[in-house]
Amino acid sequence: MGRCLETGAGKGGDVTSKTYGVVAPEVLKTYDGLGFLKAIIAGTVPNPPISELLGFHLTEVEQGRAVFEGVPEFRHYNPIGTVHGGFAATLLDSALGCAVFSTIAKGETWTTLELKFNFVRPLSEDTGPVRAEGRIVHRGRTVATSEGDLKDRAGKLYAHASTTCMIFPAKP
């Protein structure tokens, strides 16, 4: 289930599109975590709806590492005139969680147990594109931790975070 959104000209001027939706659990179980995340980037499975809502996307993934990129915009502003902290938090939560997800074997599942964010400077619509990178710190049998940061294109740090996730073994 999903829908398609044109996102502009790709290489060679062709129009690229992204789909948004959620795959059925039966489909998800046919992938390991890294394979599923690579399928999102390739467009063979839909991007999650939160990506469309906030305007950010998974751009890179490898074992134990995930990168999301987005552009803070006026629509993300809070009442005090800066981008709401939830925008940065969601990008970091996604990057940290997907760093863990990239290590999941076929049939395993996971969920977040804890998140810790540190905001070091505000985002605005003038910040430009930002990149959240998550990296595995520890991957055990039932618990994984990851850390990451949110930076602009010049490498200026806006926030950093860590997470703890619970890993559930595949059911026979």
Structure description:
With 172 residues, the protein is α+β, with helices and mostly antiparallel strands. It has one domain: Thiol Ester Dehydrase, Chain A (Roll), CATH 3.10.129. It is 22% helix and 41% strand. It contains four helices and eight strands. It has a six-stranded antiparallel sheet with strand order 3-4-6-7-8-5. A hairpin with a 3-residue loop joins strand 6 and strand 7. The radius of gyration is 16 Å and the shape is globular. The two termini are 27 Å apart.
Classify the fold: give the CATH topology.
Thiol Ester Dehydrase, Chain A
Low-confidence stretches: 1-15
Q: Rg from C-alpha positions? A: 16 Å
**Adjacency order of strands in the biggest sheet:** 3-4-6-7-8-5
Structural class: alpha+beta
What value does the average pLDDT take? 92
> Helical stretch count?
4
Ends apart, CA distance between termini: 27 Å
> CATH H-level name... which superfamily?
Hotdog Thioesterase
Form type: globular
Oligomer: single chain
CATH C-level class? Alpha Beta
Offer a concise description of the structure:
Helices cover 22% and strands 41% of the residues.
Task: Give the SSE map.
Elements lengths: L1 E8 L5 E7 L3 H4 L4 H10 L6 H6 L1 E7 L2 E6 L14 H17 L7 E11 L10 E10 L3 E10 L4 E12 L4
Antiparallel strand pairs: 1-2, 3-4, 4-6, 5-8, 6-7, 7-8
Which features characterize this protein?
single chain; 172 residues; alpha+beta; Thiol Ester Dehydrase, Chain A; six-stranded antiparallel beta sheet; 4 helices; 22% helix; 41% strand; globular; disordered N terminus
